[in-house]
Amino acid sequence: MDSLWFELAVSTIKALVVLLMVLQLAGMLGWVERKGSALIQDRIGANRASIFGFAGAGLINTMMADPLKFLTKEDLIPEGVDHLLHTLAPAVHLFPALVTFAVIPFGDVLVIGDHTINLQVAPLNVGILFILAMVSLGVYGVVLGGWASNNRWSLLGGIRGSAQMISYELAMGLALVAMIMTYGTLDLQAMVRGQGGHFLGFIPAWGIWYQPLAFIIFLCAGIAESKRVPFDLPESESELVSGFFTEYSGTKHLMFFMTDFVEVILVAGLVTTLFFGGWQVPFLARDGFHFPGGAELLLPNVVVAVLQIVSFSVKVLFFCWLQIMIRWTLPRFRYDQLMRLGWIGLLPLGFLNAIVTAVVILAWGQH
Length: 367
Prior knowledge:
Blueprint: H1 2-40, H2 59-72, H3 83-100, E1 109-112, E2 115-118, H4 127-147, H5 152-183, H6 188-193, E3 198-199, E4 203-204, H7 207-210, H8 212-225, H9 237-240, H10 250-275, E5 284-285, E6 288-290, E7 296-298, H11 301-327, H12 335-366
Antiparallel strand pairs: 1-2, 3-4, 5-6, 6-7
Helix pairs in contact: 1-2, 1-10, 1-11, 2-10, 3-4, 3-10, 4-5, 5-8, 5-12, 8-10, 8-12, 10-11
């Protein structure tokens, strides 16, 4: 019974820590996007709100003034709409993105006494299937928001969002199929552990070397799934005002706004896990560093776990930064270009990559 309570407490703590870290990073990404876009466009950026003259390079604007404004703003619901669906849509949009982090490993194991803690909220041996299921559910928030708003622009945004999801999730799925064939598992933790070797004695054997085309396909499809420039057609302000969340204000608008950044973190976490070794640190094993030539540096398990978490976090932050730079560098695609890239560009490449991967694995197995 004591062991059961310990496992329950550990799982609860892991879930809360991951949830709070994701939400805090999503808020910080709002500031990074504001100041990053200002640097790219040679502007000053957010700097008006301050506390006793201290603006914190826009941090007061983004981390205090804006949330306060959203949380205290009046919640307006248009006439003639379904109040339940209108209220439910933001939660349906945000919840799947947050739940998906449960299967992303942020470290190997942490040993405390007789207990071995897997540094993953929910260790599922079918983690990739869980990710595909949750990502697919996210589009229901877009569709519900557009349909329940009694607004033609919102409805068009919802239709665009559903079409975009179908177009790019197929390519994303094929990229994941190639990774499944490469590592022979659906378990993300097992995939990360499979990237712990080295080429030529010093090059980390990360997934990017095995599946470079799958990485490109997955990154493009992931950015499209998050509905950000250059794939922001469901909410393009120059065409649809704000798209599927035009008729939302206050906390509901904040939930839609936050989901964009949560999905940015999700894409970064998945890219890190699948293609860049996840929590792996070159030459770092469970008991410390083992360098070529036989040199060793043994470390306590807690220190190893901290190094793995830091490694995972740094990689995720880099890919969050990369997505924000892409968002403020590339122009928006036209809708026909968006569909053409998904169906004529990424989808055939995904099929080709999966077929070549299968042929190589089959030929390798016969030898």
